[in-house]
Amino acid sequence: MTQSSQLTAKILIEALPYIKQFHGKTIVIKYGGNAMIDDELKSSFARDVVLLKLVGLNPVVVHGGGPQISSTLEKLGIESSFVDGLRVTSQETVNVVEMVLGGSVNKEIVSLINSHGGKAVGLTGKDGNLIRASKIDAKEDIGFVGKVDKINPALVRHLEQDNFIPVIAPIGVGDDGETYNINADSVAGAIAAELQAEKLILMTNTPGVLDKDKQLLTGLDGKQVAGLIEDGTIVGGMMPKVECGLTAIRHGVKTAHIIDGRVDHALLLEVMTDSGVGTLIRN
Amino acid sequence: MTQSSQLTAKILIEALPYIKQFHGKTIVIKYGGNAMIDDELKSSFARDVVLLKLVGLNPVVVHGGGPQISSTLEKLGIESSFVDGLRVTSQETVNVVEMVLGGSVNKEIVSLINSHGGKAVGLTGKDGNLIRASKIDAKEDIGFVGKVDKINPALVRHLEQDNFIPVIAPIGVGDDGETYNINADSVAGAIAAELQAEKLILMTNTPGVLDKDKQLLTGLDGKQVAGLIEDGTIVGGMMPKVECGLTAIRHGVKTAHIIDGRVDHALLLEVMTDSGVGTLIRN
Amino acid sequence: MTQSSQLTAKILIEALPYIKQFHGKTIVIKYGGNAMIDDELKSSFARDVVLLKLVGLNPVVVHGGGPQISSTLEKLGIESSFVDGLRVTSQETVNVVEMVLGGSVNKEIVSLINSHGGKAVGLTGKDGNLIRASKIDAKEDIGFVGKVDKINPALVRHLEQDNFIPVIAPIGVGDDGETYNINADSVAGAIAAELQAEKLILMTNTPGVLDKDKQLLTGLDGKQVAGLIEDGTIVGGMMPKVECGLTAIRHGVKTAHIIDGRVDHALLLEVMTDSGVGTLIRN
Amino acid sequence: MTQSSQLTAKILIEALPYIKQFHGKTIVIKYGGNAMIDDELKSSFARDVVLLKLVGLNPVVVHGGGPQISSTLEKLGIESSFVDGLRVTSQETVNVVEMVLGGSVNKEIVSLINSHGGKAVGLTGKDGNLIRASKIDAKEDIGFVGKVDKINPALVRHLEQDNFIPVIAPIGVGDDGETYNINADSVAGAIAAELQAEKLILMTNTPGVLDKDKQLLTGLDGKQVAGLIEDGTIVGGMMPKVECGLTAIRHGVKTAHIIDGRVDHALLLEVMTDSGVGTLIRN
Amino acid sequence: MTQSSQLTAKILIEALPYIKQFHGKTIVIKYGGNAMIDDELKSSFARDVVLLKLVGLNPVVVHGGGPQISSTLEKLGIESSFVDGLRVTSQETVNVVEMVLGGSVNKEIVSLINSHGGKAVGLTGKDGNLIRASKIDAKEDIGFVGKVDKINPALVRHLEQDNFIPVIAPIGVGDDGETYNINADSVAGAIAAELQAEKLILMTNTPGVLDKDKQLLTGLDGKQVAGLIEDGTIVGGMMPKVECGLTAIRHGVKTAHIIDGRVDHALLLEVMTDSGVGTLIRN
Amino acid sequence: MTQSSQLTAKILIEALPYIKQFHGKTIVIKYGGNAMIDDELKSSFARDVVLLKLVGLNPVVVHGGGPQISSTLEKLGIESSFVDGLRVTSQETVNVVEMVLGGSVNKEIVSLINSHGGKAVGLTGKDGNLIRASKIDAKEDIGFVGKVDKINPALVRHLEQDNFIPVIAPIGVGDDGETYNINADSVAGAIAAELQAEKLILMTNTPGVLDKDKQLLTGLDGKQVAGLIEDGTIVGGMMPKVECGLTAIRHGVKTAHIIDGRVDHALLLEVMTDSGVGTLIRN
Q1: Would the CB atoms of D119 and C128 count as touching at under 8 Å?
Q2: What is the nearest CA distance from D23 to chain C, expressed in angstroms?
Q3: Shortest Cα distance from D118 to chain C (angstroms)?
Q4: Percentage helix, strand, coil, to 5, in chain F?
Q5: Which of A44, B98, C232, D5 is found 20 to 30 A from B251 (Cα to Cα)?
């Protein structure tokens, strides 16, 4: 018996309490950033998702796709203006967004997971009326940029039970059938809340929430988060992610995680080991 | 009581034997042509599908999308050459095809059905590995044009049982995860065969199979079809449709129908009344 | 395509919202009057019941049988006296009533429905202890005329689930096994209440509730009914029917309907179209 | 502890192997003769049936009713002629037969069983299309005297599973909805065969099959029965009963019993003790 | 028909209401004393348990084993001291207790029941963590003598549903996996309470609770028991049994019985006849 | 991210195909030797079993207990003689064997697994009549040494489905209820065959099957095993283990493994990694 076999056994055994604790629980993962671009990270993500499903957890993937949208809009010669960081989204633009997210990005992720042995099914918010949406509240009309009004979880629940892995593009549908582009973090948060998920995991291109000295904060509660926002430690792009996590845990999700998607197998490490790879937010 | 009420009752009652006969049976519908373009026809198609589901049948929709593909390819400045009527399909082209069929056309049909009260779920052949495909046999390599190797019916079966209406884009996935564009009639036929469907209904822009005198032939068996091909009555675009129907019934589908999708409620009339709207092919 | 095909489709489609709304719901129908005598009406009633069952509703039929009872009593030379319109019912009489209702009328309706493709099962209140009864309160003893004490719904529920159509004769059973003849409207109302039915439909030989000017009142609430009774608009034989409807809706039945059973397909028209055929009573 | 308590225990314990052996098995009982007339025998029969059901067997009761039919025909002034012992049965007569068997005799048995704590449900062959019938083959037309063409066991199976006790009147229904009076022994035999019953028990007014010396024959196989018929030992009214039993065991019923219904608790003794109360026929 | 056959039938029929009343109910039996030593009593006990199971009740057996423990300790030369009637139980002693109860006594009872046609499964409190225990409260440390902290009923529930008869040795398991010997009456009471049993039956070597004149008290309520304890009528070894019964009924068990296990078929007579064989305690 | 986290992830991911392949499959493990004595090995074994169950496999444990039996016999002053390596087993001896295996060793393993988070249930062959046995064929009568006649798998199947881990002592029961001590390897093999297990794993105190040069043979088929026996490579105590494995695979078990139980986590490594820890035998 080699040293390395024993290490293997030890590591498998150490995963035991996590498998036990999370058995049958839903884990909603916002997939995006480098983990969706780098080939090795893509493959490690797909393997992680398949393993989680196999050992009895229920991963649900929500994805973005900003770069692919921009690239296709550009190829089609459709120019975008931005207001407060949000793309002004005409009917023509939202049609492209839907086509890219639902037809291209979504199916690539489905295929990726399936090629690693999973049974993924791609959805947008139109399928089974999954995501009912309406225009976000904004100072000026920026078109078909939506916010989640209601999640209809029946389809996702059925797919979970039938052992499929739902992969969801953040497209919502309005009362009159109109299409909305919605922020993927928000969709992941709303789905996690509706499913009363065990975990909401946001994969980012950062190490997590940092303190003033750029040191990683591994665990925060709601009060601490409020303090960090007030004293200006949490700013910029991290702000909406932290708020998304807070909202989720206030609606019954056990924990929210902002993790570093640039780390190989970040997802697996976060769920199945003691080695956190980012910041955990709890009530 | 008005005359019209009695007519209403009479018509509902006449549907009785059809509802009874087809209860719990699967009806695979190839949706395309004018019925996918004209607003009134679209709405009547969606209502038909929802009604069939409600009274206990299991409609499964397979759609094409040639015009939308061409239009998007054109907008993107991608030129296509054709060999024997088939588009030479590069990697770049098949990516556009997948994006348009799976992300745009598919979701529009899903939304259309849902807005009439159904619970549709859009799929491509990648979802749940539904359609395994490989390159078609052809004299020269025309790229990612595929033929169906195997249908994995589990996902469609689950959705049927959970009262959803599957809407399927004719995209197949190869052994190495590559994407194939497949003829929608063939996909509909293969799915009908795998599901041992009661009916395969191909919606076309023609009245059905015509005889030498351009009169509609309402019912044909395999032998008669063979004769009509031999004597040159069935030619051109009707040929592959008739062959698709023949293949389906040889694999256990009860009847195949080539119907006139330009007629309002063609689908409902075909399934639920004596008034055929096209040609029926049986063994 | 003929004009009439399009009309057919239109009418089927218009039934869609009703099928959807009442799917899986129980509809209790008091069957009687001309609809039980006229051959064409009998056939149209049976077809209606079978269609309702087929499209997913759960019809439960309760029937009377006064004329047949009178005719058999007469043949047997048993004379009846009446008190306040109620037949004085001796042991000998109630035995005949039970025999006629349970053995003759009930089985004729069962056979009628079955011959139109349904799966009917005839019951009296003795089967599965369905209807527990005791003597009605009356000034003088009029024998075995009963009122419902308790409905045991288990048998009806099982038959509904197993896709049978229960057909119930209004015979109740007392604590000592004695037989009671009960008013069929009351039995229908009590069963509708116990099953928390969607609708209680009383088929009569009148157009419905009429106002002072003999015009049909198509919709009434409890308050309006009270007013109409007070001001003498509702009188005579309509009174107990209206009260039966009121009692049912007060016990949780959604709506009660007094319809004109002399109209062909009155039942179907009431349930599946906008064209009411009588008076609707709601809370 | 008294002597009698120990006897009680001993007797209960002796029933153990029978309860075990017949658990979940169907026992079809032809109920008739004195056991249907004498009050004490009626009560002991009902108790027996309820006990059998409670300890896990599935009794199915089929009954006759000749005396009640004759009495009602007489009261109605309808005269009957007989051909070969079979009543010539006009439309008017069969209507009375159906009314008496289905509405009077059947419900009395249902009520009897229910009053002893069972949950009986009365049926005729029209309910759920239970007994499909046609005219018996006879030298001359004797009207609506039928033979069983087909048993549809679904309704009886459902009632068994839902813990009800089916009580069946021997009325059959023809292809055109016509009513047939059928011999109750034959109906019991056909139902036992269709249900693949453990036992068919025919309750008679005789001690069972007797030999030439009028001694009871307690056990016979098919060959022995044939011999006894040939040598004239079995004659008269016993002949059809023995043949009914033979037919049943040839169609898969384990054993057929011709028992003495004049004995208190004959049914229970036959099923649950060593003390046979008649003749057993096996293959 | 002999006299004795009729008696047999009468006795079987008299058991009817008991079978009905206790159908599907759990009966927890503390088995011990002479009934566990005398061969005839053992056999009658096993038959009783099997019969109860067969007719639809769910017997659960808890047993003691004092004499066997003493005998084995003696053979092994392990001496015991006693404090207040409780054996001081060292680690070595409790190991022997567990071995004797779980490996010898328990399996003998299992085998006994199985040889009479039952399907028994032997358990100790370690199996499926059935009995969580800790040290009893006592003036001085007497070692591994335990009290029940918690019953985990899942295993027993599963075995009941799967038609097995659980036979339980009164061994508990502590938080650190340590083994406890627990009084079998207490274990039976705690299991009866957790399962919300219909009856708790304690089999003893006494006729039941006696009054001052040594006459059997056949029925007592809580108040009467309190009085009998206060006035010194209930003393000695009867005290803990009575208290165990009282505790059980206060936790929802319907009735508790202290019966004379020296009587043949005491268990069956108690459950299935009017002839009580001891004292019943109810709330 | 540390190096070690990545290693953790890599190892978990490498287990993926094994988890997938063996999902829902039964693995029968003969537990014995050092792995049952050394505290660290015991703990690692328990963890392995619990992990296998958690990730979806169904481990079934069969254990021996020779040393504990010898020690208790010695303490009780019972001497044993041996014939051909088999203990001559008197009634007194077999009673001790049953008590030690079923009451002491079995419960210790149950408790061990439960303390690591599993839900184990201990059984002997008497529970649910699991192991029917009779005397082994031998030259002279060596008493209650048995061989397996029949496995009744119902109890084990139920426990598997209800998520318990069966732990089985190799005690069989004869037709007359007599107790047999059976070789634990044989019991494991018979149970594996009856359950059509995926794997039979025999834990030994050897590295596996060695060749003439004392090098481990990692994989053998039936033919190779035959050759090795013939040429005298396989001898002594390894012989019966190899034959037990051969018998199992001939009865439908996929693979049999003779592994080195002295290796930490030998079980886990065998099932979930490429690193075999012994010899695999396949057809």
Answers
A1: yes
A2: 23
A3: 8
A4: 45, 25, 30
A5: B98
Of E2, E12, E265, the CB nearest to D51: E12
Rounded to whole angstroms, how far apart are CA atoms A23 and A28?
14
Residue F82 lies in a domain: yes
Helix (H) or strand (E) holding B98: helix B91-98
**Angle, CA E126 vertex, CA E44 and CA E50 arms, to 5°:** 20
Closest CA to F103 of F65, F133, F73, F139: F65
Residue position matching structure tokens 């916010």: A147
Are F279 and F217 contacting, i.e. CB atoms less than 8 angstroms apart? yes
Give the B-side interface with A, CB within 8 Å. 72, 75-77, 95, 98-104, 106-107, 110-112, 114-115, 119-124, 126-129, 154-155, 158-159, 162, 164, 171, 173, 177, 179
Which residue is associated with the tokens 């059901």? D53
Range of the domain at D86: 24-201+239-282
A8/F275 Cβ within 8 A: yes
CATH number for the domain harbouring residue E102 = 3.40.1160.10
B213 and B229 in contact (C-beta within 8 Å)? no
Task: Give the Cα separation of A186 and A148 in Å (integer).
Answer: 8
Q: Using a cut of 0.80, tell me whether the model's pTM lies above it.
A: yes
Query: pLDDT in tens for each of the 283 residues of chain C?
Result: 455 778 888 888 888 889 999 999 999 999 999 999 999 999 999 999 999 999 999 999 999 998 899 999 999 999 888 887 788 999 999 999 999 999 999 999 999 999 999 999 999 999 999 999 999 988 888 999 999 999 999 999 999 999 999 999 999 999 999 999 999 999 999 999 999 999 999 999 999 999 999 999 999 998 999 899 999 999 888 998 999 999 999 999 999 999 999 999 999 999 998 777 899 999 8
Domain assignment present for A250: yes
**What ipTM, to 2 d.p.?**
0.94
> For D110, which of C99, C112, C126 is closest by C-beta distance?
C126
* b/e map A140-160, b = 16+ CB within 10 Å: eebbbbbbbeebbbebbbbbb
What gap in Å lies between CA F218 and CA F215, rounded to an integer? 9
Q: For residue A219, what are the β-bridge partners?
A: A280
Q: Are F107 and F63 in contact (CB under 8 A)?
A: no
Cβ distance D98 to C95 less than 8 Å, yes or no, reads no
- Sheet with E26-31: strands ordered across: E120-124, E165-169, E58-63, E26-31, E199-204, E255-260, E278-282, E219-221
Question: How many whole angstroms separate alpha carbon F37 and alpha carbon F32?
Answer: 8
Residue C209 lies in a domain: no
Strands F199-204 and A278-282: unpaired
**From start to end of E17-90, where are the E strands?**
26-31, 58-63, 82-83, 86-87
Total domain count, chain D: 1
CB contact under 8 A, C1 and B260: yes
Q: Contact D13/E265, CB-based, under 8 Å?
A: yes
- Residues in C whose CB is inside 8 Å of some CB of D read 72, 75-77, 95, 98-104, 106-107, 110-112, 114-115, 119-124, 126-129, 154-155, 158-159, 162, 164, 171, 173, 177, 179
Residue F45 lies in a domain: yes
Rounded to whole angstroms, how far apart are CA atoms C102 and F153? 51
**In angstroms, rounded to a whole number, what is the distance separating the alpha carbons of residues B278 and B203?**
9
- Contact between residue D72 and residue D96 where contact means Cβ atoms under 8 Å apart: yes
Interface test with D, best of E11, E40, E58, E259 (most D CBs within 10 A): E11
CA-based nearest distance F251→chain A, Å: 29
In the 3-class helix/strand/coil scheme, how is F212-275 assigned residue by residue?
A: CCCCECCEEEHHHHHHHHHCCCCCCCHHHHHHHHHHHHHCCCCEEEEEECCCCCHHHHHHHCCC
Instruction: Work out the minimum CA distance from B278 to partner chain A, whole angstroms.
Output: 32
